[in-house]
Amino acid sequence: MSLATALQTSTVLTETVHARELPFDPIWFGVIVFSVFVVFGFVVYSYRDVANRHRAKAEAYAARHSGGEHGGH
Fold first, then answer.
1. DSSP annotation of 16
2. What sections of the protein cross the membrane (predicted)?
3. Going by fewer Cβ within 10 Å, which terminus of the chain is more open, N or C?
4. Rounded to an integer, what distance in angstroms lies between the CA atom of residue 3 and that of residue 10?
5. Three-state DSSP class for residue 10
6. Are 28 and 34 in contact (CB under 8 A)?
7. 26 and 19 in contact (C-beta within 8 Å)?
8. Would the pTM count as exceeding 0.70?
9. How do residues 6-56 score in pLDDT, each as one tens digit?
10. Distance CA 53, CA 58 (A)
11. DSSP one-letter code for 5
């Protein structure tokens, strides 16, 4: 066994584990994350069909800007 290996082995074996206690039960972390995802899902869902609310405005814009140098997108 080389000196480096012996030093690494002794360092690993002499280290102590400092465990931290969680602020609450682990199941609550999952509940919190799931709740955040549900809230974000409602936020995303609330933006559905936003483009169709202004259909007349979008059609007027398309009519004014059609056939230009861009050639449509």
1. P
2. 29-47
3. C
4. 10
5. helix
6. no
7. no
8. no
9. 666 666 656 666 778 989 999 999 999 999 999 999 999 998 877 677 778
10. 10
11. H
